[in-house]
Amino acid sequence: MMMERVRNYLIYNEGIRHREYKDHLGVSTIGVGFNLERGDARDKINALGLDYDEVLSGEAELSDEQVYALLDADINDTVQAAKRVVPSFDELAKARAIVVIDLIFNLGEEGFRGFRNCLAAIARADWETAALEIGDSRYARQVPNRANRNIRAMRDGVMPPGF
Question: Least buried of 33, 64, 137, 161, by fewest C-beta within 10 Å?
């Protein structure tokens, strides 16, 4: 159930595309925010039975099954990263755990580690400050709608309707 909620939230926030596109930073991307320029992208795409170069050039597209295979693997990796970054991750309310997953999925583990004040607030269960720290970031200026959903969920411990 949690995996489905996380998957749906990430799809809502990232969108889903079966062909290569450039994200807002100009990075070649496919599926649900899968960075085609990351170090393991070639191996992961080839493992799906596709030719990485054809996917990167837009000649080949992913099936729904292939998109979800990449997404589910990334979610599993992101949950492991969340447990490394937030020691109390397993005790968080589901909504707050999903926010942490979404932030790491979007920013990367190292990017989220940069949210030191937010992480300190999470550690002491100061949800108002954690939410404020999310809002006081370049991330929030870059993706304001997504950030506002995460701010509310972190503060209130409740996901937006539909998630």
Answer: 161
